[in-house]
Amino acid sequence: HHDRLLRGRAGTVQLEVNVVGRVIRELSRQEGVPGADVQISIDAEFQRMVRAKCEIGTSAVVLDARTGEVLAMATQPSFDPNIFSAGVSAEQWREWTQSRTTPLINKVTNGLYAPGSTFKMVVALAAFEARVATHTETVFCPGYMDLGDTRFHCHNRHGHGWVDARAAIKVSCDVYFYEMARRIGMDRIAAMARRFGLGVPLEIELPGARAGLVPTRAWRQSRGHAWNIGDTLVHGIGQGFYQITPLALATMTARLATGRAVQPHLTRAIGGQPVAGSRAEDWPSLGIPERDLRLVRDAMWAVVNEQGG
Known about the structure:
Layout: H1 3-7, E1 12-17, E2 23-30, E3 38-40, H2 44-53, E4 59-63, E5 70-75, H3 83-86, H4 90-98, H5 107-110, H6 120-129, E6 139-141, E7 144-147, E8 150-153, E9 161-163, H7 165-171, H8 174-184, H9 186-195, H10 217-221, H11 229-235, H12 246-258, E10 267-270, E11 273-274, H13 290-305
Antiparallel strand pairs: 1-2, 3-10, 4-5, 6-9, 7-8, 10-11
Helix pairs in contact: 6-8, 6-9, 7-13, 8-11
């Protein structure tokens, strides 16, 4: 991304020489311009630690939630790009391309996955914005929801009983989010997801990073299939047609933490000058009420800090 900045510009010298190649005089000279120093946000020691903890077939990315700076990004297995400067053997190339663990793909920016329950906070915020639910309203979870002749199960087959928004996130109650999705509709869920950086291009300075997919009814219909209410329910718990990168999920979480449209980026400064986005106040507000964000953050805290989370 910063290749031209780093390269600088070569200088030129025009010389007059005689027939045997001896320099007679210098006609003109244009001095070269050295490349700019680019400071990136990766913390080298932290990067080594994160990489060491990644198991084969996994990836991890850590952002500064206030600024969007990438502090560490690792994917396993990986490869040494310096090998390409000397040429890669056919055997090595076959090993890389045929491996099920996809060592040539940066899974953080190009791996596409269903987000599952990590998506439920977006559904809750969409329900509050659409005014189809309040913070304190409860939904009864018997362990399933029946829709026509189809039964949609909760991960807890015994049910969670009456749960409000905070409790539903804390215990990850599927039935609560089936009900919220039914009330909201898929298109409003998708609109909220895009505000949180899901299914849209992110501004990270890496070529080929994938935007992923957050489906809508029109997207499904354009492929010759009708969208039905059952599809909406499944997408209310982060399953279905979603294709989300780990980087997008980290961005979503940074936006939940700050309430701002944080973009992930690797550049901290160019030529000693901080780039835009290196301060929290550089990012615009998402326009989500602070009380809604506070509830969701509190529920996320409860997931890992309270009994039953």
